Amino acid sequence: VRGAPLIGIAAAYGLALAAVHCDGHDLKALRQCLRDAGETLRATRPTAVNLAWALDRVLRAVSSASTFGEGVAIAVRTARTIHEEDIEGNRRIGRLGAALLRPGARVMTHCNAGALATGGYGTALGVLAAAHEEGALQHVHVNETRPLLQGARLTAWELRESGVPFTLEPDSAAGLTMRRGLVDAVITGADRIAANGDAANKIGTYQLAVLAHANGIPFYIAAPTSTIDLAAATGDDIPIEERSPDEVLCVRGTRIAPEGVLVSNPAFDVTPAELIDAIITENGVARPPYERTLAEACHQGVPAHG
Amino acid sequence: VRGAPLIGIAAAYGLALAAVHCDGHDLKALRQCLRDAGETLRATRPTAVNLAWALDRVLRAVSSASTFGEGVAIAVRTARTIHEEDIEGNRRIGRLGAALLRPGARVMTHCNAGALATGGYGTALGVLAAAHEEGALQHVHVNETRPLLQGARLTAWELRESGVPFTLEPDSAAGLTMRRGLVDAVITGADRIAANGDAANKIGTYQLAVLAHANGIPFYIAAPTSTIDLAAATGDDIPIEERSPDEVLCVRGTRIAPEGVLVSNPAFDVTPAELIDAIITENGVARPPYERTLAEACHQGVPAHG
Q1: Closest chain A residue to the Cα of B248, Cα to Cα
Q2: Do A172 and B256 lie within an 8 Å CB cutoff?
């Protein structure tokens, strides 16, 4: 499972499954089952805050149960609600984001923030889907997104299935494509957004934002409020996952470098808020100063106990 | 054959071979053989100017011959001279470039500008080799350099063989590595440098220069004067080779994207002169204004007719 929103949804369903399969009959046993499953799930990935957000939401909802059976039902219902709300929220993000693009827009995106990364519609790709439906999208530039090639494998597939015109490009061609005047906007998803607007997303996002800035191109992030972590003051508070060297040394099972080579493989980077023109959430388009606008977007949200 | 200096050397040897194998006995036949071979070789690659430079130098040298045998001998001798001068020039580039690095320097490089791209020593990697010999180099960050992975396949191999400490990183991690404060200088080679200092090099170089600038890190180019094209006023006069989509769609024979996907695969980009802190040539370190300093470096060079 990958994609911050989908990680959250999968974690919620994970707790629901733990509840359904819990070997016990009273609330104490159910709470123990959910605590154990929650700890296991929480430790799987450090960067995407949607994981902790979804777990906490299910656990909090279940805490209001007065019987074992009610607790199980609440866990399942809350997971389904989280899933449904994500799809609904994505559609709102899509409409709000599409309104930021001028007709005939040519947009660059990175990694995969589409149906395959969410409940089923997409955040950054949701914006592109909405713009395409409105006939406002001319072309998409898809970065292949090494090391795991989510752009080449997933975004290319999603856009092809949707009939959106696009080209696939190596990550290192992004600067030239912008400099050639082929990009009107850059839109990516996010894995965790700090209270000040600093945003962690797939490795390579930071440099796209720098390049967009240098070339006078607006840089947007599209993400649900479940990706905003108001407890993280700035990007410095966001842990960056370092992943296996094998992801870099081998491409789809084929070795690409000599033996005995050290690798750095950070899975995410943080784009500083000052490089982000807007953050598109289901509760509105947040603009600087993000301290205020992100807090407002979060507090306009659905009640946290679903 | 790849690497601008090595492309030039190989082209010169190509003409020498054409001379040695020329089926004729007089100068007219030799000139025809060399013209035919020259045309074939000239059409192989558009971006690296060393190709045309080496061909022209051999052809000009042979034009002074008064017999068939003398012409063949001059062609062979000139090719050998070009090769030997390149190695010697690389060593001078190495010493001059190493002097720009402070002790304990941590340097990022892109693609391969080493022994495997030149007559046998290297330009950007020549600088790193010289700094390493002097004990001044702490660490090298090697970008893998998609699509053809020259960083992962060639530079990683060269540095490992030389015992230089390095890490291999995806191209999209370069920005984060710089932002983390791990890079004191960026050094790359070049394929063609215009009179104003705009420099074509492997795709991804431009964005490294933008990122270096944004992070207050000096950006250097190391290249022999044979890479400088005073006839190209600016980078706009440098043709950029667009290469096969298969280089992006397949990694070492393994398909990484769905069928029916359009690809953009420019092999080079142009870094504007204002992002380049210095251009290290065998005739000295050129600094802005490059119009003057590059012309000086070229005119201090060895006589063009070897």
Answers
A1: A170
A2: no
Rounded to the nearest 10°, the torsion over CA B153, B154, B159, B160 is: 40
A90: helix, strand or coil: helix
Q: What is the pTM of this model?
A: 0.95
Q: Which residues of A touch B145 (CB under 8 A)?
A: 172
Locate A286 and state its tokens: 């947040």
Nearest to A180, CA basis, from B212, B73, B207 = B207
Interface pTM, i.e. ipTM: 0.94
Quick check: A59 and A15 in contact, CB under 8 A?
Answer: yes
Query: Which residue carries 């070997």 as its tokens?
Result: A23
Closest residue of A to B153, CA-based? A257
Pull the structure tokens for residue A288.
Answer: 């600087």
Give me the amino acid identity at B125: L
Answer yes or no: are the C-beta atoms of B265 and B243 closer than 8 Å. yes
| A168:B214 CB<8 A | no
Look up residue B230 and give its two tokens.
């005073």
C-alpha–C-alpha distance, residues B139 and B149, integer Å: 20
pLDDT by 10s per residue, chain B, length 306: 999 999 999 999 999 999 999 999 999 999 999 999 999 999 999 999 999 999 999 999 999 999 999 999 999 999 999 999 999 999 999 999 999 999 999 999 999 999 999 999 999 999 999 999 999 999 999 999 999 999 999 999 999 999 999 999 999 999 999 999 999 999 999 999 999 999 999 999 999 999 999 999 999 999 999 999 999 999 999 999 999 999 999 999 999 999 999 999 999 999 999 999 999 999 999 999 999 999 999 998 544 333
Which residues in chain A touch residue B167, judged by CB atoms under 8 angstroms apart? 262-264
Token pair 């960026």 is found at: B186
Q: Which residues of A touch B176 (CB under 8 A)?
A: 203, 206-207, 266, 269
Structure tokens, B102:
């402070």
Report CB contact under 8 Å: B264, A152.
no
Interchain proximity B254–A253, CB inside 8 Å: yes
Chain A positions touching B141 (Cβ under 8 A) are: 264
Q: What 8-state DSSP symbol labels residue A153? A: I
Cβ pair B94, B220 in contact under 8 A: no
Determine whether B191 is an active site residue: yes
Interchain CB contact of B175 with A (< 8 Å): yes
From A86, A171, A191, A229, the catalytic residue: A191
